[in-house]
Write a structure and sequence with these properties.
two-stranded antiparallel ribbon; 74% helix; 4% strand
């Protein structure tokens, strides 16, 4: 029982990491709380549901189309709502704009799909097999493998690809990066696009694993991404991995061994305890400003 719960917790943690990495990327570069992140990824996940259930598109093309649409929507939100406010001295203006963008996307999605819980089709065969007495679901195993592979690939992209290095440089200092010839507008657009892509992938994997999808998951996705990012150290890519895993494993153990009713309160209690011990998060570092 314990190992099954741990396995599912690691799978959920890997999915949460995908959602959190996109959130952390935006904050790492712009120091902006992207409150529209969850609504973007739920839009892409609902689009995948439409392609799979209503139009019976092949799972590969349905997921690929919804992932690209989610990334494009995220980049469009950045271009329309955030870009002109990037130089604003008061970050509260950008945060209010982010909330406005989130509500617009949420209401458009609700107008299209409604607010009811919809059955999401499984993308993988519902088989199980036993290893050393441990029963493992094929869906959980494949989902975990895909999530881990994407996380590894994305980290390799950041470290070795030219655009990935540009993203890391911009996250260190946006002004200096622009002086060094890095195209800031294009880099930021790519960051939002990748954030939307990772979010939709995480949303599709989560909905396929639990066979449900609803509009309300968008707001919860934003809260999860924010919480995991804060636990790991907001703005840190490695922190997103640690925070996502801690959140996914803890949430699953609390839901099984305590009660699903107390899942969110206990998780936020864990957040408070971690921040009391280390206010910047596990891998976060306090900002040092030169005077």
């Amino acid at each position: 029982m314990f190992w099954n719960v741990l396995m599912v917790g690691i799978m959920v943690g890997a999915i949460y990491t995908l959602v959190t990495m996109g959130y952390s990327m935006v904050y790492g570069i712009l120091r902006l709380m992207n409150f529209a992140h969850g609504d973007v990824y739920i839009f892409g996940t609902l689009l995948a549901w439409t392609l799979l259930s209503a139009h019976h598109v092949s799972p590969l093309f349905a997921v690929l189309g919804s992932v690209l649409a989610g990334g494009a929507l995220a980049a469009l939100v950045e271009f329309v709502a955030y870009r002109r406010l990037r130089a604003a001295q008061n970050r509260m203006i950008s945060m209010i704009t982010a909330l406005g963008a989130a509500y617009i996307i949420q209401n458009l999605s609700e107008l299209k799909w409604g607010n009811q819980v919809l059955p999401f089709p499984s993308l993988f065969p519902s088989h199980s097999f036993s290893i050393l007495g441990l029963t493992i679901s094929l869906t959980n195993l494949v989902t975990l493998g895909i999530a881990v592979a994407i996380i590894v690939f994305f980290n390799l992209f950041l470290k070795h690809h030219k655009m990935g290095k540009a993203i890391l440089c911009a996250s260190e200092d946006l002004t200096t990066a622009s002086l060094m010839g890095i195209p800031i507008n294009r880099t930021v657009s790519i960051v939002y696009f990748l954030g939307g892509v990772l979010g939709v992938i995480g949303g599709v994997l989560y909905s396929s694993s639990y066979n449900v999808i609803s509009i309300s998951m968008g707001f919860r996705g934003t809260i999860i991404a924010f919480t995991a990012a804060v636990i790991g150290g907001i703005g840190s890519f490695s922190g997103a991995l640690i925070g996502g895993m801690i959140l996914g494993i803890s949430e699953n153990f609390v839901g099984v061994y305590v009660s699903s009713m107390f899942r969110d309160p206990i998780i936020f209690l864990l957040l408070v305890v971690i921040l009391l011990v280390k206010p910047t998060g596990i891998l976060g570092q306090a900002e040092i400003k030169k005077v």
